[in-house]
Every structure is written in C-alpha cells, then in structure tokens.
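ARCHIVE CARD
SHELF: 3
SLOT: left
DATA:
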Amino acid sequence: MKNEVPLSALGLRGSLGSLRSSEPVGLAPPPSLLQSLLEEAADYLVIHRDFKACLETCQRGCERLGSYLRAEEYEDSKDLKCFLCVVGIQALAEMDRWRDVLSWLLQYYQVPEHLPPKLLELCILLYSKVKEPQAILEVASNWLRDPANRDLPEYGAIFELHLFRVLLPLHCWTDAEAMAGLCAKEEQRRAASQAIYIARQQQEENLQETEEPDPQKENQGGTFCRKQLALWKLLRWLLESMVDHLLSLPLKKTFLFALVLCLLVVRFDPACPSSLPFFYKLAHIFYRIRGTIFSPCYLSSYNS
C-alpha cells in the first residue's frame, strides 16, 4: 500500500492557499491553526515518512474541529477537515491499516451519507485496490440513495466508481440496476444498463465454460489412458516371458545367472574372503531347491 494516494493527486498543496482565516475565533478554531496542522501532517507523511505522527496530527486537527458546535457551518472548516482526513487515510494505508479507514472516518462523520464526495471516492478506490469492495458496499449505496447527494456535481463520478469498482465485481445485479435508475441523466442510465448487461453475459458464459466438459480434453485423457494400459500390458508380457525363460533354463545356468546378477547388483568381490560365506549360502539354497524339485515325491505330485 505504499504511495497509493499521492498528495499531488489529491490537490492538497493547491487547496491550502485558498483557505481563508477570517472566521470568528469563538465559533470555530482559527483556520490558520488548522492549516498549520494540515501542513505539519503533510510534512510527516511526505518528508519524514512518520506515518504514526501524521495520523496523530490529523486526529488532533479533526478533534479540534469537532469540539466547536458550529464548526460544520463554515466552508473553510469543512475543507480543512476533509483534507485532514485525506492525509489520515494515506497514513493508514502506508501502515497497512486500510481495514481501519472506514471506521476511522466515521468517528468524525457519524452519518455515512454526510461523507464528502472526495473521501467516498478515495475509499472506493482504496477498497477496490485491495480487492475488498464489499467493505464499502453498504456505505456507498446509502450515500448514493440519499436525496441530498443527488444534486452534487460529483454524484455521477461517484456512481460510476461504485458501479464498476464495487457492484459489478461483486455481481450485485439487482442493486446495480436499482442504482442505474437513480441517475438523472438518460445517457448515463443507458450506459450503466449496457455495462450491467455485458457483465452479466460474461458471468453466464464463464459459468457455462466451467460446467461443460471439454471434448478435446476428454479425448486427450482417453488416449493417455489407453497408451498407459498398453504399456502396462507390454511390461507384463516381457516380465512373464523373462520368468518363463529363466524357469526353462537348467539349474546350473540359473545358478550362474543369479550369481552374475548378484555380482552386478550387490557388487561383491569374488576374491574377497568376506564374500565366501555369502556364496556358500547361495549354493546351499540352490542345492536344496534342486533336491526338492527332483525328489520322487515332487515329481510324482507334478506328474499327477
């Protein structure tokens, strides 16, 4: 979440010069004091990279604004509060505390419908960026449904952001159609309805592709299974042929074959004295096998 919302993109520097300091001191905190807090928070964010101190400075400024009953009546105080919240959101994002952004804002804007459009726009962009659009779904929907916000010049931009960044990714088709009906401009309603239709068609096509089996993949799988079965049959035939061939050899040749196989696999040295006990045991085993095979009892039972 590093540098997701740069200050230059939010227009903080240019807006500071337009803030006036001519409001009565008894009704609201001096704008010059709040402006200095805003500049201090911006310095912590951009220059010192001290995000905790930046957030604390923003909180101090918002609390001072909230301590005056009529502070909300002054446009300059509203702008300062909004810009303090913008810097605070950036500080929270830099500390990877984006989940706390909405609850932090609602401490100073108790009613979600009263959020300034700039803050709501920033929240939609933030939560869609981190793949959590459902976190802002209810707040943005309530803001758009509020009749007091429909006359704002930013209403159309907020609606488009909410549609393409929240509603369509979450497949909220009914809510999207209801929101499209609230648009005052016919062109915007038509564009929104077309976007909803296209998104729904794409979802249905994706579902059909996942449900329907691919004939080519099935043919490839069947061919692979047949080849594997044929290979196993070939290996089995070779193994049976080798066993039959070994059984058909005379006993001496079988013994010699086993001896050579042991020499190759175990790598015994025939000249080493330690290998003699092994050869004695092997020869004893073959003698016993030969005595058993060629005994009269075994031959009579085999012939019968």
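SLOT: right
DATA:
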Amino acid sequence: MNLCEKIGLTIPTNSYGNLYTVIAARFGGFMANESELGFKEVVNRMSEMVRNSKAGYAKVVDGEKLHSMVKDSLMDFTELVFTSEEHLIPFSSWCRFQLFKNDFGWGRLALVGLASVKFRLVFLIDDEDDEGIYAWVTLKEDEMIPFKHDVEIQAITS
C-alpha cells in the first residue's frame, strides 16, 4: 500500500522512494462455522483490512510513530512467514505505479513482472494501457489446477 498519499505527516520535498506497509491477514478459523471462503468474501475482507490500515496511517503525525507502525507490520508478516501455516500467500499490488511508462533509453517497457518464484504469491500490476490489471499468481501445481478452473476466477479473467 502506498502510504505517502495517506499519512498526515509532512514529507520533505527533497524526499524520494517508496513507503509501504505489510497487512497480514489470517482467514482460517476467523469466524465460527467457517469452512471455506469464496473469492468475494476474501476480497471483501482484504479490502476492509486495507481501508482500516489506511485510516490508521492517515492519523499519523509523528515520524517515530510511522516508523514503529511500518516496522510492526513487517514483524507481523515475518512472524507469519516463519510459522507452520501452510496456506500463507503474500499479496502485493503495484497498481498506479505506472511502471509501463518507464523508458530506460530503448523505449517503453513491453512487459513488467516478477522473476520466477518458488512460493505462493499474488501480484497485481496495471496493464500497459492503464485500463486493466494483470494478476501474476504462483501456487503449487496441485493448487493451480482448481484455481484456473474456478468459476469466479474465470468470470473476471480474460
């Protein structure tokens, strides 16, 4: 999540770089009698978590508090990574970064993505025309087959 637009902290004009946070979500056993979440329920919960996180960061007016909040979010994520949870799936969005508009001297980029990764991951990025979103999804092979055949996933992909 790009925090620069959300925080109440004054950022010096000569500053540059990215300020981000990690929002860690646990879904298993989150609610009583919950055995399986549908795609829409997961998206709704994640959206709610992002909204709540943005609201929290919007109240920050102290650099030390901001540092502490970002550090704590990374520590929470690190703790999740090193637990025995089998279904940890990092999710990242580089939407609105306008990466396809970069030109390193040989023209605009034709492809923006990730190097091959050996772990579960969902990575979102705007398409080259800023009219859609690419979703790079890496799963275990036995998980990818049902994912690709999921009716809700097929309905929103091309």
